[in-house]
Each structure stands twice: as structure tokens, then as C-alpha cells.
Amino acid sequence: MVKRPRALAQSRAAVLATLFVLGWALRVGLPGIDLTGIRFHHQVHSLRVAEMLAIVAALLFIRAGPLGLPKLRSSLGTFAAAAFLLAGVAAGSSLWALHPRLALLQGAHLAIWVAFAIVVAIVRVPPRQMAATFVLGLLVHVVVGLAQAVTQRNVGLWALGELQIRPGPPWSTIHEWEFLRVYGLSSHPNVLAGHFAIGMALCLGLASGRRPADRALVGVTLALLFVTLFLTFSRAGLLAAALALAVSAIWMSWTGAGRISGLALRLAAGGAAAIAIFAWALERHRLSASALADLVLRPAGATERFGLIHAAVRLMAAHPLGGVGARNFSAATRAVTPDQAMLDSVHNVPLLIGAELGLAGLIPAAVVVAVLLAVGWRHWSARSAHLWHGPIAGALAALALASLLDHYPWTVPQGGLLGAWLAGWWLTEDPPSLEDRPQRPAEPGPPERAASRSA
User: Fold this and answer.
1) 98, 99, 193, 212: which is closest to 142 by C-alpha?
2) Is the CB of residue 145 less than 8 Å from the CB of residue 192?
3) For the residues 201-227, what does the mean pLDDT come to?
4) Among residues 28, 54, 318, 438, which is most buried (max CB within 10 A)?
């Protein structure tokens, strides 16, 4: 029994508010902590507005009274134990890290993300409300991002966390073309692209079982997300979106949980619009064939990432048990680079965890992944007809792919909270209401029974 139902309702509202601003870069600095002198610290010394709302949701959840904490032998209990152990290892790595405060703050961020996942799993906000709120927040990024693409400059929404990108770091524009990549209110185009990929998978769930007018509205939203995703010029984001849609569609087709008719046509319309915008940009900026090849393949970036992977492997070999300390990858690369250069984080989360925390971090991280896979296999083998299992599976697959091609699910709060939300949602045992179960048509009764009733 809940002691304070009002606090529980407020906790659910705080979860929805967190999802609306999940991708925003708006942050609040922690008093007395200044790490700006350390390169590649990725604002670990600050709290994002989404993290603050997640803390509010957790505190209200505690105030609401006991809701049945997860048992250790349950999937949620095992996930929580392993995830909190990972946070503890990250904080404990401050004992041997070159910059101890970075490790302590990373451990604090991880604890916030894990607590948010547990809250999502237990308070059971209606799935359709969560998906719709998250997608509405993405539409704010769409409006800002399209304005950035058209004007090729900042919109000026500094109060909402928009970053002053131009002139800025090299990743903000496409070289030899000087075209500003869309980043909306997020901290990086790749981060925004990852959110868009997951939002597109959730649109499949929002469109299923709805009226034609509602499905058309969701189709337009899906097209807008695709167009803006294209303008982020994120290869990882495009691959993640394709994987998310494929996994979601296959899962929903296998279980019979919802129809996705008409979405392929709207997705094609969105692709045509993106190609038209791209062709217009080519004509306006007179992009050469060689520049177009560099735009798509970006060989210099691929070479740099292979160098980061090589550095990560060397750090893992040198520190196999405890790593170099959470968020200390960049500082530690000076010891393994010929010119003692400080490199960015490796764009691969498993390698990054292995380099920073060693086996002590990889083992609990592997347990977390194993729990999610076990729950997925159970749903798949049982052919669960839950409407949202397919979109969530697609979203988790997209985030897993992004974790292999980028580092923001580990280094950026928007990525960490995104993964926590999806994990908590995936580990929720039952839907909170019947409205999120697909409505199957009732089977007709035997003819003789129907005749006797009519008589």
C-alpha cells in the first residue's frame, strides 16, 4: 500500500517532465567544483536539467512510501545490484585515478541514472504517456534544428541550453562545405541523432491501434524526425534508426502486437523530403564530388577513431583489473601516445569501460546487459503481445549500436538517462493498464450457442 498517493502521482509527473527535457543540454554547475581546466571532461562537473528532475522523481518515489522494492533474485533486483555496483566501482576508482574528482562525479551520475531506472520500473507510468512525452520533447529539437539548418547559425535560445557552436569545435560543421550540423538543444549532433532514432521506434507504438487521423499525425512526426536526423549528418544515428525500425517492425510482426500499415509510405515521404533538402544544399553550396565523398565517409574521422581504439586497448593491457579511473581515459592517453597527446574518449562504450574500470567495471556491466537480454529472450520466446515490447526492443537495439559507435551513453548525461529510462521500462513486469495491450477481435461462439441465445 502507498502511504502518500499524491507523492506517487507527483513522482510520475516528474518522470514525464524528465523525458520531455531528456535531450536538452541545459545544465547547472555544481558549487565549489571547477574542472574546466581538464580537457575532454564533457561537463561532468554539472547536472543537466533532466538529471535534476530525475532526482526529484526518485525523492518523491521514496516519500510515497513502500511500493515493493525489487527482490535480489528478480530481473530488476539483479539489474539494480549490478548497476549500483558499477557506480560504486566508478566512484571507488578515484583511489587510483589521476583526477579523483572526475571518478567521484562519474559515480554520482551513474547512481542518478540507476535510481531513475528503478523509479521508472516501479511507479509504472503509462507507456503511451511516456512515449508521447518523449516524442513531443523531440519535436522541440526538430523546430530548433530546422531553424539552425535554414539560417546556418544559432537560434539564440541560450536560456533553454542552446550551445554557441559557430565558430566552434571541428565536429560542429562539415569541412570543405561549412554546413552547420543540426544539434537542436542538445550538446552534440550525434547525441540528438541517437534520441531521434529511438523516437522513431516509439512512433511505431504510438501509431498502432489508433484512429486514421492519429496515425497520420504520428506519420508526419516520424517524417519530421527522419528529416532532422538526416541533417545531423550522423552515420551512427542513421544506422541506429534503421536498426530500431527493423527490430521494432520484426518484433511487432512476430507477436502480432499492432499494425504499422502506412508508416512505410510516410517514412518514404520523409526520405524524399530529406533528399530534396540535401540536393538544394548541394546546389547552393556547390559541393564537389570529392567533398561529397568526404561528407559521407569522413575518412579522417574513421582514422582518428581507429587510433582511439588502439589507445584503449593499450590502456586495458596496462591496467587490466581496475583501469585508469572513471572519466580519466583522456588524461591517461598521454602515457600511451608517442607525442604525449591527450585524446578524446574512445567511441566504443565497452572499450571505454574496460580502459577506465578494467575487469572490475566490465563484469557488472556485463551482468546488466545479460539481464536485459534474458528479459528480451523471455518476451520473445513467449511471443508476448504487449504492444510496447517491440518498440522498446528496437530502441534498446539502437542504443546498443550507438554504444559501439560512440561514447555518449557513458560520458553524457542525456545518453545515460536515456539508457536508464529504456532499461527501467523494459524491466517493468506488467503494463499499468489495458489500454497499452493490443485489442484482439473476439472469436465468434459456436453456431448452436448463438442460435439458442437469439431464440
Assistant:
1) 193
2) yes
3) 80
4) 54
